[in-house]
Amino acid sequence: MGQTSFTVGVLRQAQQLEAELGRVAQTPATAAPRAQVEGDLTVARDAAAGGGGWWSRFMDWATGASVEIAWGALHRAQRALVTVQPAESLRAQVPRLEEIARSTFAPDRAKSEIQTLDSWRDPAVAPDPLVAQRILAAHHAVSDARHQQVRRTRNALYALLGVCAALVVALWVTGVTGGPVVGLGALSGALSVVVLADKQSGGTGVYNLVPAQGLLKLVAGAATAVLAVKVIDGSGGVAVSDSRDALYAVVFGFVQQAFTRLVDQQAQVLSQGPDARNSTDATGAPAAPAPGAAGA
Fold first, then answer.
1. Among 158, 172, 180, 95, which residue's Cα sits nearest to residue 132?
2. Which of 6, 111, 148, 267 fits a disulfide with 206 by CB distance 3.0 to 4.6 angstroms?
């Protein structure tokens, strides 16, 4: 897989967790959790390293196996780490844990968890690492489920893209339509990509929907133009001409934006929400994204 943004992100997170682990005292009581963190970090790094032939890489891309294994291991390491961190470290994480609780739980549950976290600010109260572990586990579950939904949506978009492209190519090869109509429709569809770039606030991490959205607009523009021109040609009433077909191809190639806009809205919703995969500290505090982090 090479040094993709996914690999860089996993290795950077693993390095940060390893540094946090290095600040934990080595005692018999911390031996087992330390071993678990170290083992999970090894699993994450191995998964991020990837490898194999092109088919293995494609299947890995489609199923997200390496991504889920790597981030699952990092999340387990985060949860194990908080069980051995000193009280001072847990108190320092209270603001972030409260933020996670608000974004993860229903209001009543969040209020209860925040009250517990607030009590940690009292030096006389010993922080319970199991509370932090519970909050992180819920946060990771929500984030992982959302990322998996994004991956399924991305795969569905590429499948739809393939069907539309096959339809356009078949109509072109069989002579049902001409190259100018296909080209002008695709070009007009490409203009709506500008609208996507202007409104999309960012990618969706390693499962980036933006490339699929953009390609779908191009192909949908060509398909819409072809179908619209053939329907209008068959309806009669207007003399058929190349210039008229070209005009309709441009108009209807851009009109596909009305249909693909629904896809854009769903993608925007999926790109928002709690994210435990763009972080570096034990509680998932956000960090500056790696270069190209939106496009792996």
1. 95
2. 6
CA atoms within 13 A on the CB side of 279: 21
Both tokens of 95, joined, read 């603001």
CB atoms within 10 A of CB 217: 30
Structure confidence by residue, pLDDT tens digits, 183-202: 877 877 777 776 665 555 44
Indicate the SS3 state at residue 126. coil
Count other C-beta atoms under 10 Å from residue 154's C-beta: 23
DSSP 34-58: HHHHHHHHHHHHHHHH--S-HHHHH
With b for 16 or more beta-carbon neighbours within 10 A and e for fewer, the 104-118 pattern comes to: bbeeeebeebbebbe
pLDDT grade for 170, boundaries at 50, 70 and 90: confident
Asked whether 283 and 127 are in contact (CB, 8 A), the reply is no
CA neighbor of 71 nearest in space, from 267, 270, 284, 272 = 284
225, two tokens: 């133009």
**Among candidates 121, 77, 106, 127, which has minimal Cα distance to 284?**
77
- The pLDDT value recorded for residue 6 is 85
Buried b (16+ CB within 10 A) or exposed e, 194-213: eebeeebeebbbbbbbbebb
Is the whole model's pTM more than 0.90, yes or no?
A: no
Amino acid identity at 281: D
**Do residues 272 and 145 lie in contact, with contact meaning Cβ atoms separated by under 8 Å?**
no
pLDDT in tens, 45-69: 999 988 788 899 899 999 999 999 9
Taking the C-alpha atoms of residue 174 and residue 51, their distance in angstroms, rounded to an integer, is: 41
Q: If you search the block for the tokens 């339809």, which residue do you land on?
A: 167
Which residue stretches of 105-128 are H helix? 107-119
Residues 247 and 244: their CA atoms lie apart, in Å, by 5
CA distance 141 to 144: 5
